[in-house]
Write a structure and sequence with these properties.
- It comes from Steroidobacter flavus.
- Strands 1-2-4-3-5-6-9-10-13-14 form a ten-stranded mixed beta sheet, sandwiched between helices. Strands 17, 18, 19, 22, 25, 28, 29 and 30 form an eight-stranded antiparallel beta sheet that branches. It has a four-stranded antiparallel beta sheet with strand order 20-27-23-24, with no helix packed on it.
- The longest helix is centred in the middle third of the chain and has 19 residues, at 354-372.
- By secondary structure, it is α+β, with helices and mostly antiparallel strands.
- Bound molecules: D-phenylglycine.
- D-phenylglycine binds at residues 125, 167-168, 193, 201, 216, 304-305.
């Protein structure tokens, strides 16, 4: 039978033509969807058109109008609205949008100019039109033009728009509030990128975040669609960066010199006018009045943009004396957790889903008031999760404690002999020392150090890592208190005031405040002796006197450094100890300081990297200390 069928098939044609089975245009049947999707190109004032997706819940109609919540993104708007390929809007959009979907809002996602479906030129976090952006367009004008189009062309819209987004999308959210469209009624930036040199994605106090930055730049700028992805070739970035030598050498080996933003930041390693003129907090501080109510949301353990949220609040709060328009919320979150789920971070567990609670109980009533005329909620001016105690705290003034002009006064905690830490200044003593060797830099977390994009990297947790891996090194100084006999609360910004010398002519200083758990924790044995990093940062010595004008350090001279650390709201519980660790590298996340002064560390030659003897002074008149924002326990 088989043979005879074969003969027949060969003998005569069964079909005459074989057209493509894929139609010219397929119309999906979306009858079961609880929303409709419109895909439009919205023209900007310079003629450039931006790809925009408008997702309209079935509940919104010409007669039952709804507000619009908009996000402008460099991360592929089409992909952002396909979290799950689902007929339900709640599942399709990012988790950040959950409460706005439940409230029946229209959701809009737009590609920023130059990315994915949008036309135009791409510039990294395009600065406001002005000294560092000679064009007439920026994210403020693009947001304005988009909102103008939306309220005129979406018949289901109630004419009110809110903006929301995190990190880069937080940046575009903040920018939408500059010379805002009258229909923009409220903005919720999560972890906005505010100052890339001071403490957000690119540098921290002048030290370059090579381990994250190079990859971001490559993936974002090599193509419009992100087709090329950064690669290492080594599993452990510690090896990769050590072999490369400098950040500049690593960048060159991957062709980054073709990318405009890499060229720009490698030409501006100092805090010169190029950076100052795009620092969002400084620019917004110049705006005469607050036109758009804003809820600024930050994470206490944000591994990418930890600086931005409190800095923006600091710039804007003075313009809102009654605390009705500018709010700050800080949760126990890493970068992105506030937009997702906040039950735990690394080894830490919190009281329930702190992020979901925040969005439904705090953010959504705030949005509904401005976008739907819901009653004004009692939104606290400042709401911060208190780690260690695991509860939310409300404040009228933030920071709560500091050296001058806060409700409570901070206390000096001194580095003392014998690795002790205490509240009495030293009456005798000299210094502690270690050798910092650029050939064996201190890893920022236990090796292997995986790329941030690797799901196993634990990148999002490292700011609460156990610091025992560092404590046992000879190039890390460790100071600690006795076990506390009573709780100690801190609420504000710790500042390290160090007297330190180096035998080199440049140096980095890393300061870490750590909560050391009791030797035994019967309820969770793995936490016994856990050295939980609480607040830590790096400072590049050459910027000691002037961030814009780096200078060599006088070798072997005890120089004074003032190093601001990330904000805290924490209780050190009885039985815990407070620890401070000091070291001179945090590799490979931060590039190595060669410890010889060179014009641009990005391009330091191998011969410039030298060992240096580092001294931390704890002597009368030269007493290194931490200004700790201690507050009274209730
Ligand atoms: N931290 C990321 C970023 C912000 C700004 C510029 C480049 C990268 C982000 O999560 O969007």
């Amino acid at each position: 039978l088989a043979l005879s069928l074969g003969v027949q098939a060969g003998a005569s044609q069964l079909v005459k033509t074989l057209p493509s089975e894929t139609p010219e245009k397929f119309t999906p049947n979306v009858d079961s969807f609880d929303y409709t999707k419109r895909e439009v190109m919205i023209p900007m004032r310079d003629g450039v058109k931006l790809k925009t997706f408008i997702l309209i819940p079935r509940s919104a109609t010409k007669d039952a109008k709804a507000p619009i919540i908009m996000t402008r993104t460099p991360y592929n708007a089409g992909g952002r609205i396909m979290r799950f390929n689902s007929p339900r809007l709640l599942a399709a959009v990012p988790q950040m949008n959950d409460t706005t979907v439940e409230a029946g809002y229209i959701v809009v996602y737009q590609d920023v100019r130059g990315k994915f479906g949008s036309d135009g030129d791409y510039v990294m976090t395009r600065p406001l039109s002005g000294p560092v952006n000679p064009t007439k367009v920026d994210h403020a004008t693009d947001a304005y033009d988009t909102i103008d189009w939306l309220v005129k062309n979406v018949p289901e819209s109630n004419g009110r728009v809110g903006t929301i987004g995190g990190s880069y999308e937080g940046y575009t959210t903040v920018m939408s509030t500059v010379n805002p469209h009258p229909a923009l009624k409220v903005a919720v930036p999560f972890a906005p990128m505010i100052d890339g040199w001071m403490g957000d994605d690119w540098f921290h106090n002048g030290a370059f975040r090579q381990g994250a930055a190079l990859e971001f730049i490559y993936n974002q700028q090599s193509t419009r669609s992100g087709a090329y992805k950064w690669w290492f070739g080594e599993y452990d970035l510690y090896d990769a960066f050590l072999r490369a030598g400098s950040a500049g050498a690593m960048a060159k080996s991957r062709g980054l010199d073709q990318l405009g933003f890499w060229r720009a930041i490698s030409e501006h390693p100092s805090y010169d006018r190029w950076w100052q003129e795009q620092a969002v907090d400084k620019l917004l501080a110049q705006q005469p009045v607050i036109k758009v109510p804003m809820m600024i949301v930050g994470g206490l353990f944000d591994q990418e943009d930890i600086y931005g949220s409190p800095a923006l609040y600091k710039a804007l709060a003075p313009k809102d004396p009654t605390g009705q328009l500018i709010h700050l919320v800080m949760g126990p979150w890493n970068h992105g957790q506030g937009r997702r789920e906040g039950r735990a971070l690394g080894a830490l567990e919190f009281s329930g889903d702190t992020a979901g609670w925040f969005r439904s109980r705090v953010m959504q009533p705030f949005l509904d008031h401005y976008l739907k005329d819901a009653p004004k909620p009692k939104t606290p001016r400042v709401l911060v999760y208190e780690t260690g105690a695991d509860e939310w705290r409300q404040y009228d003034h933030w920071p709560r404690s500091c050296a001058v002009a806060c409700v409570e006064k901070s206390r000096s905690m001194y580095l003392l002999s014998g690795g002790r830490l205490g509240f009495d200044a030293p009456s005798t003593g000299t210094y502690d020392e270690y050798v910092s060797d650029p050939a064996k830099p201190v890893p920022y977390r236990p090796r292997p150090n995986l790329p941030s994009g690797n799901a196993d990297s634990g990148w999002g947790e490292w700011l609460v890592d156990d610091q025992r891996h560092a404590a046992s090194r000879t190039d890390v100084l460790v100071y600690e208190t006795d076990p506390l006999t009573a709780p100690m609360r801190v609420a504000g910004q710790p500042i390290a005031r160090l007297f330190a010398s180096t035998s080199g002519t440049d140096s980095d200083w890393v300061v870490k405040i750590i909560d050391v758990w009791p030797d035994e924790v019967p309820s969770k044995p793995s936490m016994g002796g856990y050295q939980q990093m609480l607040s830590a940062d790096i400072f590049r010595g050459r910027y000691r006197a002037n961030a814009a004008d780096p200078q060599p350090l006088a070798a072997n001279e005890a120089l004074h450094y003032e190093i601001p650390l990330p904000q805290v709201n924490h209780t050190f519980q009885p039985g815990h100890r407070i620890m401070v660790q000091i070291q001179s590298s945090w590799f490979p996340l931060y590039d190595r300081n060669p410890q010889t002064f060179v014009p641009n560390i990005m391009f330091a030659e191998p011969k410039s990297y030298v060992k240096a003897t580092q001294r931390l002074w704890r002597a009368p008149g030269k007493s290194s200390q931490i200004d700790l924002p201690v507050v009274a326990t209730r």
